[in-house]
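Sample intake — 40S ribosomal protein S12
Collected from: Pycnococcus provasolii
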Amino acid sequence: MADEETPMETEVPEEPAADEPLDLNGALQMVLKKALAHDGLARGINECVKAIERGQGQLCVLAQDCNQPDYVKLVEGLCKEYNVNLIAVPSNETLGEWAGLCKIDAEGNPRKIVKCSVCVVRDYGEETRGLAVLNETLKEK
């Protein structure tokens, strides 16, 4: 009787409910994760500049606390020239976490986060509710 296996309960990460409204940061995080899963995310200044200049960039996310003013000027200028939507996030550490530049520990908490000043979405992947919220926000601007 000691050999009986008891089924273990596994925790499923909670997704926002379909009727629950998403804010801009939650929608952006969802879009970046889907783009990363579909290999449609350029991270770092070099990859991002190449993606924008090739006309592949659909959305650019820039960290407001970027310590290189030349990066900010370059990215803003390229986004304006190539008509790429630009969204600013407050922290480059947060952007690095959202862009997948971190390790996830056993509890699901991000560890060893690498800071990221800019990332560009080349391919959104699949249509999500986060993408719809993001598109609505961009239309309002």
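Post-analysis note: The chain has five helices and six strands.
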